[in-house]
Structures are given as structure tokens and as C-alpha cells.
Amino acid sequence: METTKQQIEKQIDQTILMVERLLRMDTVPKSELLVFAQWLNRFSEYDQANFFERQTAGWGSELNGAAEEVTHEQIVKLLAPVIDHLSERGRKKIVRKEMILSVTKRFLDNIQWKKALEHERYMTRFFGSIEDTLEVGYDLHVDAMLIDYEIIRMTEDTLLKKLIKKLETAFIPLILIGPNDPTVRQMCYALGADDYWDETVGIDERKIRLQRLLRKLRAVSSSILVDELTGAFNRKYLQNAYRRRTSRLERDHQLFALAIFDLDHFKRINDLHGHPTGDLVLTELAALTKQALRQDDELIRFGGEEFMVLFSADNSKHAAEMMERVRARIERHTFPNGLKVTVSIGLTIIDDALMDLEEMTSEADEALYQAKRNGRNQVILYAMATAKEKLEVVIKVEKTLLPSLSRIELPFHPKYDFNLVADDQKTTGAIQLYVMPLERLATSDFKLVKQWKQAREALIDVIAIADEENQLLGQALERGVTDYCLSPLDSHQLEEQIRQWVIRLP
Question: Strand (E) positions, 284-362?
């Protein structure tokens, strides 16, 4: 039987799904919004009764006299306090925007399209080549990809096929954009495009066709629970698997463990031997791990080279011994190209059915990072005596802009602590975000951006502050700048961009 806490978590997840669906609609029947208000009031039986009752009490009067179809602007206004409340509950409760990634050399031509997408609460990213796009890897959760036909023509077949395979295995819609030429259109569909847009397809029609593809993606994604590359379960499987085990713990007092492991120096394998070899290593690693586990144990691909195991254990010693067998088996094995691979493993024991999945994941993560700090290729069990040492993430802001962001509240992240500093302050961090004026970034032919991109061991993103949407901004986006804000600076928009960046960190 579900506990009150589990009921609240389920209600929150369902509410977020409803909110995201309403935000994707151009208009919503008034009756549907009033039904949603009733849902929020029923939610009040479990959580924050006064808040939801206050929010929905005025909906009837606000909608009184309105047309039967409520506009998108009215929907956003009504739901804004609900979104803020859900977001305050922690990182995993933030209403995540869908990510639309465009691969193009025509950055300025896409400015209006970018604005239209962000008005509809999408996130956007632009890349100048297929190669740069592949570098992003597994951890940037893309919901749809748009590629200019000119990019297709300039790209090697091997890279193009690799990208299309990645999109197909994740059921990510691929839209190709090109000339109004039947021959080109037919070739693009044969290549694997889900849709083709020529110059006759305006922005309003683009939005409708994109929404249709995303609806199909959500329907397919909700029913697919296996990662096609490795054969392990995917993250969509995790929540229900965890709930099943906590129910068994509550009913039969059967303890279980949660372990997270990843390959040591996996980026080096990709850089030296290529992504195809990296994929083969991941596939073989998953097969080896399954052989070392029992039939009832569950292997889940948790990130790019990161896996999770849920398994029954009598006690912490028993759990550590099981993971040690997995670690040793992988260390002994010879992978493709004669590679020897090791893994670091962190685990924690769940002995209370009320323990939250995110909290337990955070504990296993901390143990994993302690294993890496201790030299890698080892198993570490989380203990309450362990200091919660998170990795530092540095957000560097040009010092004249820093006062406007000094009070920003960043979402909780189980792996990282965030340090917001002036750009001239010396710091170190495995992940860094820079917020800088465009003119400074463009100095010496974007020398700074080149240096940051060459920092291979760090994840670097850049938000430019631009005076106008001109050719220089187009060059910045082509060189690797992630996003931009226009002057005079809208601090609320910039804060939202930074928050969305935080919740997407792997």
C-alpha cells in the first residue's frame, strides 16, 4: 500500500505532466482548465492545501465571460504560480523545457525561429556541424533535431549515419530543412527524416508540425523502457522499479541496494579510438555486468557511460561483495581493440521504504565520486560518516553583470555545488558556464571561446550578452556560444536560462 509520501510524489509527477501538456497547446477549452483546477484541489488533501486552493479560487472569475477556448497567453498567466511552486520543491520537480537542437550555418536566418520556440517555452541549442553535435553525446537530452540540407551535403557519410542511428534509437524526431525541390525532399526522407521543411513552410506551420512530432515522441518514449544500444533498461524504467522494491521492503522487509558505476576515463577511449569503439565498449560492458548479476537484479543505463544497478542484499557487506565481483569481472575482460577498462562503483543500502529515490541516488553518487577521488577502479559504500563532497560547478559572470544575478536561486543538484563568481576570479571546476558580453568574446577572433573548447576535460558553455542580433552574433553561435541575451539585459530571462542549464547537467 502506498504511503502518503509516495502518493504526494506520484501526484507531483502527474501534475507536472499535465502542466507541460497545457503549455504546449495553442488554446485550451475552458472546461479543461476548470477540471485541472479540481485536480489541484484534490491534490490539496496531501500537500500545501492553502496554496493550491488560493490559486484556483480565482480561476472561475478570471475565466468568467472568456471565450470557450482559452488563449496560450492566458494559460501561461494562470499556470505561472503553479510552475513556480512545483519548481521550488527541488531540481527534479522543475518543469523541464523541451530541447530543440538545430544544426545550421545560417544562425542569423534562424533568429526569428529561435524567438518563436522560446516563446512557446522550448529550449534551443545551435551547432555548426554534425561533428560538434556528436560531441555533445548522450547526456544532452534532445527532444527534436533540425538540420539544414547544406550541412547534410558537407558531412561525411559515416558521421551522418552515426548521428541518424543515435536519433533513431532514442526515437528523436529528425527534421531536414532545404530547398523546394522534389528530388532533394525525396532523398531526405530516404535518409531517415521524419519531416522536411522547404522555404514555403512558415513559422506558424513549423510550430504545428513540430508539436505533432513531439506528441508522437512522448507517446513512444513512455512505452519504451529499454536502451537500444546496451540492452539495459533506460531511466524511464527507474522510478517504477524503485517503487516496486520499496513496496517489497515495506511488505517483506527485503533490503536492497542501489549502485552507480561508470567507466574510468571513458572520454579518452572516444577521443583516441573513436565513438564507434566507445559504443562497442558500452555494449560489451552491459553484457558482462548482466552475466555477473542475478536474474532478479536490474541494470539501468543512467547516463552516457554511467549505469545503475538495483539488487537485493542481506546487508552492506553482501552488497559490496556483489559489486566487487562486477568490478573484478570488468577489469579482467579484454574489450574491442584490445582495450582494458575499469569502473568505479558507489553504492548505498535502502533499509527504509520511505527513503527517496533522489536522495539514495545522491548517496550512491557521492560514494562513486569518492571512489574516483581515491584513485578509481574500486567499490565504495556510502556511510553517513562520509562527507558530502560535491563537485564544484563555476558560473563565471562578467563583473559588471554580476550584481543583477547575485540573488539568483539555483535548483538543487545531487552532484554539484554552484559557485557564482566574477569572470576575473581564479577558480577551478570540472564544469563551467560563462556569461560574457559578445564584444569581449569576439576579441582576437573569439580566442577565449577557442581556449574554452580546447579544455577537453571540462564541460564548457557560454551565454553571450549582445546589443543586437547581427552578423557578429551569428559568428559567435557558429563558434560554439551556447545561447544569448539581448541588451538592455532582462535579468529574469537570463536567470531562467541559467536554471535550465543547471537542471540539464548530467
Answer: 298-301, 306-312, 334-335, 339-340, 343-350
Model pTM? 0.55
- Indicate the SS3 state at residue 399: coil
pLDDT in tens, 129-164: 888 888 765 456 788 999 999 999 999 998 898 888
Strands annotated E in 75-184: 98-103, 122-127, 144-148, 174-177
On the question of pLDDT at 10 being above 70, the answer is no
Taking Cα atoms as reference points, which of 327, 301, 163, 161 lies closest to residue 230? Answer: 301
- Per residue in 433-470, pLDDT (tens digit) is 999 999 999 998 889 888 887 765 567 889 999 998 88
- DSSP structure class, residue 233: B
Q: Residue 39: name the closest of 70, 10, 68 by CA.
A: 10
Q: Could you tell me which of 391, 255, 245 has the C-alpha nearest to residue 318?
A: 255
Contact criterion met (CB below 8 Å) for 260 and 346: yes
CA atoms within 13 A on the CB side of 125: 23
Summarised one tens digit per residue, pLDDT across range 236-269 is 888 888 988 998 898 888 899 999 999 998 988 8
Q: Which three cell numbers stand for residue 389?
A: 563532497
Sign (positive or negative) of CA dihedral 181, 183, 186, 187? negative
470 phi, psi to nearest 5 deg: -120, -170
Side chain identity at 491, as an amino acid letter?
Answer: S
